[in-house]
Design a protein that fits this description.
This protein is an alpha/beta fold. 48% of the residues lie in helices and 17% in strands. The protein is built from 15 helices and eleven strands. Helix 5 packs parallel to helix 7 and helix 7 packs parallel to helix 9. It starts with 7 loop residues before the first helix and ends with a helix.
Length: 349
């Protein structure tokens, strides 16, 4: 790209110029153009075109991994990381056919009535060679490579199939990525899943983040309106961590707000976090949108949310993600205390 370059410093200055120009060129300042740059130098990194491009691509992946909006130079040690990532991608694409994926469920509790009202379905991967792999590791890879479409489809089918078998008509919430939402046939495929599994649409809730919204506002809005027409509920996940929460709440057909766990864990130690949580709860009440707080881990956090009239909660204090068989006392009224009595005891700390 740049012949006769004087050295790494000049390449870095060019990268900074490109990043700055693209930031200035964005039509919507609140939705900046996401840019990442990888740099490889000849002859230090390679002396042929193909190898140089390959090394620059490796550096580009590092720039993306470290937060985007930046640039990185190629380093020889990056090669091993890229090879591992490619192997991870390969193994991930085979995970479904090999029955390595499974769903963990985390209960969601209605504070006012002291009852479990639903579960969030969370995908997990147990690899024979790697062991348990964190979603924080494999989900970003799946989204970047497109494998998330196949995985997301499996998660929706499995969660709906499982929920349809419950004796109690509890809701099930499923996370949906931006890649899925921008698939033109997403709503149609979702409708087909509901028909095949027999799950009532009103018992399904899809959770999306604000990051998923801003990638393509018009396309996402059209898709969500189609989803809403099916009778499926829509929750804004990780509320408060995105770009323009208030405008998104007004523009999109949300049924529920989920307060991000980063605020909940600070409500008793950080006055600003407590104020934000109170503001979100007030906003939800004013808009007629129930609010669910995620990441509740202590009695003090739960007590704060009770006092502030939060609608629903989920977190380790109420139940860690586990196989759905662990919660049959709620899904089938089996083996344990009746849900109302058991849940009230938890809700009251």
């Amino acid at each position: 790209m740049l012949p006769n370059i004087s050295g790494p410093a000049a390449a870095g200055r060019l990268a900074e110029t490109i990043l700055e120009a693209l930031r200035d060129a964005s039509d919507a300042p609140e939705v900046p153009i996401a840019t990442s740059i990888g740099i490889a130098l000849s002859p230090d990194d390679a002396d042929d075109r193909q190898s140089l491009m390959s090394h620059a691509d490796v550096a580009l992946y590092r720039a993306k991994k470290e937060g985007r909006g930046t640039y990185r130079f190629f380093e020889a040690k990056m090669g091993a990381e890229v090879r591992d990532r490619r192997q991870l991608d390969h193994d991930l694409r085979l995970a479904i056919s090999r029955d390595e994926l499974w769903l963990a469920y985390q209960p969601q509790l209605d504070i006012r009535h002291g009852k479990v009202v639903g579960f969030e379905a969370l995908v997990r991967w147990r690899s024979p060679s790697r062991g348990e792999i964190s979603p924080g590791v494999f989900i970003p890879v799946a989204e970047e490579t497109g494998a998330i479409l196949q995985i997301g489809d499996w998660v929706l089918k499995e969660a709906c199939r499982e929920a349809a078998s419950w004796k109690m008509p509890l809701k099930v919430a499923v996370n949906v990525s931006a890649v899925q939402l921008h698939n033109a046939s997403f709503a149609q495929e979702l409708h087909q899943i509901l028909i095949e599994t027999g799950l009532s649409a009103k018992r399904l809730e899809i959770e999306i983040t604000e990051t998923a919204l801003v990638r393509d506002l018009n396309r996402t809005l059209a898709t969500l309106r189609q989803v809403k027409a099916l009778g499926v509920e829509i929750a804004m996940d990780d509320f408060g961590t995105g770009y323009s929460s208030l405008s998104n709440l007004r523009a999109f057909p949300f049924d529920r707000i989920k307060i991000d766990r980063s605020f909940i864990k600070q409500v008793n130690s950080n006055q600003q976090a407590a104020t934000i949580v109170r503001a979100v709860l007030g906003l939800g009440k004013g808009l007629g949108l129930p609010v669910i707080a995620e990441g509740v881990e202590t009695d003090e956090e739960l007590r704060f949310l009770q006092e502030e009239s939060c609608d629903e909660v989920q977190g380790y204090l109420l139940g860690r993600p586990a196989s759905i068989d662990s919660f049959r006392q709620y899904t089938h009224l089996e083996a344990g205390l009746p849900p109302a009595a058991s849940d009230k005891r938890v809700a009251n700390g």
